[in-house]
Amino acid sequence: MNILQKTVFTLSLLVSVNSFSQDIKAMQAAFAKSFMNEDKGDFKAALQDIQPIYSDKSYLVNLRIGWLSYLSKDYANSVVYYKKACDLNPGATEPLWGLALPLIAQEKWYDVENTYKSIVRFDPKNSLVNYRLGMIYYYRKNYVDALKHFDITLTLFPLDYDSILMSAWTTYFLGKKEDAKVLSNRVLLMYQHDTSAIEGLTLCSK
Q: What is the total count of domains within the chain?
């Protein structure tokens, strides 16, 4: 590399570093203002603070806009930006959890299911996502798949009230009354007067 080439390279590097430094400072300032307005409940202003630094290649910016769009009840745009964040960081579950929010708000339960399944593929023993999948299948009366997910949450948290209670009802609807009795009685160990567990025991005795 001759002297002229070295000089051009050095200048290019300095410009690049300076540009990067300016970009970071602009992002920090925009995010700071945006968080301040979010704390005030002014989600429209919080969104406007981010717009000048928007880049379709920035995971953080797309994630932020997805969240603020959700808070603004602009669910369609929230989905768009969360999906962009998912594409930009395909190894992360963070944007998938975010994506589920506007989908739930729109009651797009099959899309919610698929989003939760994506989380499970990354994090198969996550108790929260397994519980939520269990609830989706339970309300569809798909008790076999519901129980598979409730079993995971119970294995991880044997004394989790919600998981025990839902497992009790799921086993009851599967015709496993003895299992349902055991689970309902476990609920009553923690909450002696739990009406749902008492109702379940009564039904199991018929």
A: 2
